[in-house]
Amino acid sequence: xxxxxxxxxxxxxxxxxxxxxxxxxxxxxxxxxxxxxxxxxxxxxxxxxxxxxxxxxxxxxxxxxxxxxxxxxxxxxxxxxxxxxxxxxxxxxxxxxxxxxxxxxxxxxxxxxxxxxxxxxxxxxxxxxxxxxxxxxxxxxxxxxxxxxxxxxxxxxxxxxxxxxxxxxxxxxxxxxxxxxxxxxxxxxxxxxxxxxxxxxxxxxxxxxxxxxxxxxxxxxxxxxxxxxxxxxxxxxxxxxxxxxxxxxxxxxxxxxxxxxxxxxxxxxxxxxxxxxxxxxxxxxxxxxxxxxxxxxxxxxxxxxxxxxxxxxxxxxxxxxxxxxxxxxxxxxxxxxxxxxxxxxxxxxxxxxxxxxxxxxxxxxxxxxxxxxxxxxxxxxxxxxxxxxxxxxxxxxxxxxxxxxxxxxxxxxxxxxxxxxxxxxxxxxxxxxxxxxxxxxxxxxxxxxxxxxxxxxxxxxxxxxxxxxxxxxxxxxxxxxxxxxxxxxxxxxxxxxxxxxxxxxxxxxxxxxxxxxxxxxxxxxxxxxxxxxxxxxxxxxxxxxxxxxxxxxxxxxxxxxxxxxxxxxxxxxxxxxxxxxxxxxxxxxxxxxxxxxxxxxxxxxxxxxxxxxxxxxxxxxxxxxxxxxxxxxxxxxxxxxxxxxxxxxxxxxxxxxxxxxxxxxxxxxxxxxxxxxxxxxxxxxxxxxxxxxxxxxxxxxxxxxxxxxxxxxxxxxxxxxxx
Length: 723
Hints:
By secondary structure, the protein is of the alpha/beta class.
């Protein structure tokens, strides 16, 4: 941004400016934000250089702009919001707080490229401002999702594709179109043969720009790059080379069809290929299905009856996830899975058979599959595939195959309800492809179910976390007086329900109105009157200020997000003696670790991409942390050390290395003192996931070394690093 040119102004104008400042402060004290903002702007415009105004005045203006931004965002007044932010930035081009807020808002409304520009400016101005650093990282993750790194680092996949492409080109198929080029790896493979001519098509604008840089870095000039969908025929016809006799693509998800692969392949062979004699890599695929039992996976989708059932009288109802994704990507090798049926082939797709593909695209294709069962309960269907690159070269995601690739997991399709099967029973499925997505329906099997409620997946995971439930039940025993007033802001108000059964008045802020029917049904099952348990949608600050007497008030707040990030140290003044805050204290335990998974999903290595020079471009989109970890495989290199979480700022702690080796991350979780001696650790939690911070460069360590871990907290933003 251009720097301001100082302007001369009269003494009288400066005097008027002081009047504006006085009026601005008065309007702020009266919470008249609009007038305060206008007076501040008039004051700053009366100065030669607004950036030379006092720090206190600039801080007050910044807080005011942020407040106005929140109000305008809540009312969807986009025009005024942008006007406010941009005018403020024009006055103070280096105000990293306003730059960050504007960047975060632009990201929220989908203007990712614009968001990144403002966030990069904020980080450039203040490299230690955590909110801007975190928001910029989320923007980068959106521009290039983490699975791109896993794909590029899968050497087995890359070598197979390279071999298939090379062998096909030398047979004369050298006029190539790469569909869904990503950062251009398959095009680079093809370009190694000088007779080839390649058009790389990539719809993602960020990856398209990376393609241009990477091709230039690797000195390949025989590649034309287009930024569009391959099915956008008019755009392609204007730019594509005159001939095409080879299609290469890798646009498959764990359930094979998810990235509209068939649609793109059909269009490419019907329209883009110009020669009668052509090839496509891959040339076909086989999909397989089997029935599985896995309590860990089932607990993500259904409430598994446990202690809560007896406590809250939930024995005769079914509780399952509302609006789940059609399938989940899961590494079955990391789960305790019991395979309940044999494995059967669903589809054997020949990509040269346009008639068959066309039938699938018309939603007219289905397959009846029969699975022979062993006695037990089937929770879900697991799907994997073999990808035939050529007739001789193939890849597989089969978890039973030692040669399976690592970049794809397996697809897990949850049944509507668990199915009890007998030994030798046949489970009949109908597999269909609808709107380019794989679907299953059960033709036979299943039983009648009790009253069924669909709730948010967060409620499911909360109810299924036995450690969390036991801790809350134990904490409830510490409060046995019926005259408490309770505010419970957890996603599932178990504490509130239990206290209401003891006669207390309870307030719960529901996070989604769709869960209200379920919560009220629990009240009915437990004979809790509605005047004792109030389900509200206001912010808790409103509830606490307007509805609670505070004489004996317990406020159970949730300081941790489910993905393992920090939400809020405390929503209220800890010195307010009128309110008992739960939890009482929060600690963060940190451990030195090494995990190969961390490198695979965050840093591309040129050695994994056939030594093409890619890493320096892709790694610009690396993050410095990984939230939402479930079953991270890692090696411990220290005992955990624990930081107290009680205020913003920086703190440090020494940690001793307990073995020789390499470390690449700081793994952390929360130790929570709910009340008195009742403790809860998210290390053993299935509801709260774990997180880790990466080291940008793995560090070689020796047993007995002492390292210093630095923790920085800024509100709900947390960062861990090694000194």
